[in-house]
Amino acid sequence: MISDKELATRVALSGDQVAFAEIVERHQTPIRCFLRRLVGGDHSAADDLAQETFLAAFQKMYTYKGSAKLSTWLHTIAYRQFVSMTRKQKRMLVMAEVPDEGLDPREATDNEILARHLMGLLGPEDRACMTMAYAAGMSHADIARVVNQPLGSVKSRIHRAKLKLQKWLKEHDHSIPNGKKPKQEGSHAGSAA
């Protein structure tokens, strides 16, 4: 299997479209998922941004130096595309309510609905950091590169976002299930399982 760095080198040196197609194949799903979370579940907007991300990546592949993982570099471009879109529209795409689009209530779990709502409570930068940390599994150092902020700022942003979400959950009497069934009202504490 050819490494991402080797594929990127082929694209940068000769515009190798086969190598770039392999890069897209490997990274399009995580980039689309990342962008969907940023735009609050709007699949169409996320797909448009993903397409713009990969177009920009192809055009700027010569700038990729390999000091960070290619996935981090692509997330950086995707994040910048998102920021650019929000500036152009002069309105934030933060959704305070659970969006209907893209979420089939028959297939969605309560956790998915709650998670989407919670992410809608965060601003775009906080949502991006939380998404990269927990959904994409990126390190704080990689996130700092993507959002072009100091490492300490990223750690603080993630910490504050977690506190905000925990506070909302507590104030609204929600909890994240831990796999145990909650007690039903009127159940007997002494009943055998």
Topology:
Layout (H helix, E strand, L loop, with lengths): L3 H11 L2 H22 L4 H17 L10 H20 L20 H11 L3 H12 L4 H8 L3 H21 L22
Helix pairs in contact: 1-2, 2-3, 2-4, 3-4, 4-7, 6-8, 7-8
Question: What does this 3D model show about the protein?
Answer:
- The chain is mainly alpha-helical.
- The protein has one domain: Butyryl-CoA Dehydrogenase, subunit A, domain 3, CATH 1.20.140.160.
- The chain contains 8 helices and no strands.
Kindly report the name of the CATH homologous superfamily.
Answer: PhyR, sigma-like (SL) domain
With helices defined by DSSP (H or I, 4 residues minimum), what is the helix count?
8
CATH architecture: Up-down Bundle
CATH class, named Mainly Alpha
For the sheet with most strands, the description reads: none
What is the fold named in CATH at topology level? Answer: Butyryl-CoA Dehydrogenase, subunit A, domain 3
Approximately how much beta-strand content do the residues carry? under 5%
Listing every helix as H and every strand as E from the N terminus to the C terminus, the arrangement reads HHHHHHHH
Count of domain modules? 1
Poorly predicted ranges (pLDDT <50, ≥5 residues)? 90-103, 177-193
* Structural class designation: mainly alpha
The backbone outline, from C-alpha atoms, is elongated
> Whole-number radius of gyration?
20 Å
Helix content: 55-70%
Number of beta-strand segments: 0
Mean model confidence by pLDDT: 80
